[in-house]
Amino acid sequence: MFDLLLRRARLVDDTLTDIAIQDGKIAALGDISAPAKSIVELNGKTYVSAGWIDSHVHCYPKSPIYHDEPDSVGIATGVTTVIDAGSTGADDVDDFWQLTRKASTDVYALLNISRVGLIAQNELANMDNIDADAVRDAVKRRPDFIVGLKARMSSSVVGENGITPLDRAKAMQKENGDLPLMVHIGNNPPNLDEIAERLSAGDIITHCYNGKPNRILTPAGELRASVTRALQRGVRLDVGHGTASFSFAVAQRAIAMGILPHTISSDIYCRNRIDGPVRSLASVMSKFLSIGMTLTQVIDCVTANAADGLRLAHKGRLTTGLDADLTLFTLKHEPVVMVDAEKESLQVDNILVPLAAVRAGKGYMTEQGSAENAFNF
Ligand SMILES: [Zn+2]
């Protein structure tokens, strides 16, 4: 007897399957006749993918600048796993861990290399905040929570320190088992070329389609040579839309040249969630559907690719034995005008609507799913 059975789920390749769940894990796929305590009939209409993973959010509820609640950016919008990108450092990561244990959303952290985290915008302007011992101790204390490091490399953050904080971050990465390192790019200095040259396989550039001078494109619209070389070495591109870090024009041009993101993430927190331009991960994903990516590519960016990038081997795929994290959604043909971080607008014709999520085997309705009274878990 399974705990939960989803019948006739539509996958993004348009095949249909049943999905059985037992003890919080995916137990079986295919044509399933065994009984279950709870059965949800999807009739081949509702899409199901592995649970969506947002690789870049801010959800430390006590952050003085970029705060939110994990479930507001997570399960309420169909996102089963969120990775907070550097809201906390060694000094406050334990408090963040403690505060998020009761969330329905699975929460992980990229540890800010500044021990004070994001208590101010310029956390890397004082080199005394970059403390290798404090980082090492924090990673040891919370090995299942801290999945990587975060370094925000833009002028307003690093002050007079230029590229030096990134060199320190790379050294810390080596000292801590080669954890993934996510690097934020924005205004220069430091110049993106200096940043890209220092990155190696598995490192993640977030805000990859920002429209600032440190964009990945040259003024002529070609990909910077430094970024081409970084991608050849295995560096990964993450969207990190945010309030100020996503340009339709840059993304459209890059995608047309075949420069796709490895991961689509939101950089969401309460202000850009409520007031825009982010709104939700689904909204960011819908933008990519309208600028040249297929549904399969978009879903991969928030499932398998995200799990690979942050080494969450127990997530990201519909495979027996992995976490029973699922997102149930529809694709609605409905023209909506969406805005990027440069205040440019674009008409999006198809929008992704998350209806429900299953997290560790337990079903939750999203805000939109509840409104439509979609399922009975
Ligand atoms: Zn961020």
Overall description:
The modification N6-carboxylysine is found at residue 150. Keywords: Metal-binding, Zinc. The record marks 152 as: Transition state stabilizer. GO terms for molecular function: deacetylase activity; hydrolase activity, acting on carbon-nitrogen (but not peptide) bonds; metal ion binding. 25% of the residues lie in helices and 28% in strands. A 7-stranded parallel β-sheet has the order 6-7-8-9-10-11-12. It has a 4-stranded mixed β-sheet with strand order 3-2-1-4, with no helix packed on it. The protein has a 4-stranded antiparallel β-sheet with strand order 5-13-14-15. The two termini are 16 Å apart. The model has no long low-confidence stretch (mean pLDDT 97). With 377 residues, it is α/β, with parallel strands linked by helices. It is globular and about 65 Å long. The chain binds zinc ion (ZN). Zinc ion (ZN) binds at residues 56, 58, 85, 240, 242, 267. Zinc ion binds next to loops.
Helix % is 10-25%
Bound molecules: zinc ion
* N-to-C SSE string, H for helix and E for strand: EEEEEEHEHEHEHHEHEHEHHHHHEEEH
Number of strands: 15
Which regions are unreliable across 5 or more consecutive residues at pLDDT < 50? none
Bin the strand percentage: 25-35%
How far is the N terminus from the C terminus? 16 Å
Q: What oligomeric state is this?
A: single chain
The gyration radius over C-alpha positions equals 20 Å
User: How do the strands of the widest beta sheet line up side by side?
Assistant: 6-7-8-9-10-11-12
Largest pleated sheet:
7 strands, parallel
Structural class: alpha/beta
Binding site for Zn(2+) 1: 56, 58, 150, 267
Organism: Yokenella regensburgei
Binding site for Zn(2+) 2: 150, 184, 207
Site (Transition state stabilizer): 152
